[in-house]
Amino acid sequence: MTDLPAALTAEEARTLDTALNLGEAQARAVLAALPSSRGAHAAALALALGRPHLTLEWTDEPLLLAAAHLRLGRPDAALSTLGGLPDTARPALLRARAALQGGTTDALAQATHARTLARADGDGGALVAAATLLAEHHLRAGAHHEALRTLAEGLKVAEMTGQPADPHLLAVLAHAQKPLNSRKAAATAAKALDRSDPGSPARVLALLALDRSADAHAQAQRGSLAAAWWEPFAGLVSATRPPATTPETDGTAADG
Questions:
Q1: In this structure, are residues 185 and 249 in contact, taking their beta carbons and an 8 Å threshold?
Q2: Residue-level pLDDT at 162
Q3: Whole-number mean pLDDT of the chain?
Q4: Which domain of life is it from (predicted)?
Q5: Which of 14, 43, 60 marks a domain boundary?
Q6: What is the count of structural domains for the chain?
Q7: Cβ(4)–Cβ(37) below 8 Å
Q8: Is residue 137 part of a domain?
Q9: Which long-range contacts link 103-109 to residues 24+ away (Cβ below 8 Å)?
Q10: Cα–Cα distance, 207 to 209 (Å, whole number)
Q11: Does residue 249 fall inside a structural domain?
């Protein structure tokens, strides 16, 4: 009989966290010494710490597998993994991210649908992710103010729950703010960078917003993060020429 998934103990999590930051070989050695029931939780930690290849090795949980495939820029593999899941907020979000990566014509509609489902489900985490994804669409279209309005809903979730604002949302927010108020954008990006995990989209985008492109590329490589996550933002940064601003043109505040 297969062991039921079990959470990592605090000590196991610390040990695995250290190993994941050292490298994949070290992480595999640590996992080999843990009970097999720890695999799913270890896979989630691996994804959070920028080791999507290990996530694919360590779990068969569809949402985790799809998320790992998307980190690696494999939208078709992600969609295949999600094929049997219902049309609820979290699968819809991953499908919408895959649509953006794959360049499908209904990618924006899928992201909007995912936000609608997150609202209906009362899923705060999914709503934050949906707001972030929709804001990415708006930024690619040059609609910075629309991106700010969209991200405000995600910031409101953090405010209502008393949780810190999500670092990925903050990193995208920094790019939305940058043409409007470069100093506020830098402060937002610094906050995102401080909260982000190694090799994550949040860290790479925060570094790009801070004009640290070499560091951003190094972090993308560290996390096996596909160019689909960050190349559009690199283009936005290179095209940005911030005008002089007044407090009235700051855009959404970097609360949280």
A1: no
A2: 87
A3: 90
A4: Bacteria
A5: 60
A6: 2
A7: yes
A8: no
A9: 107/137, 108/134, 108/137
A10: 5
A11: yes
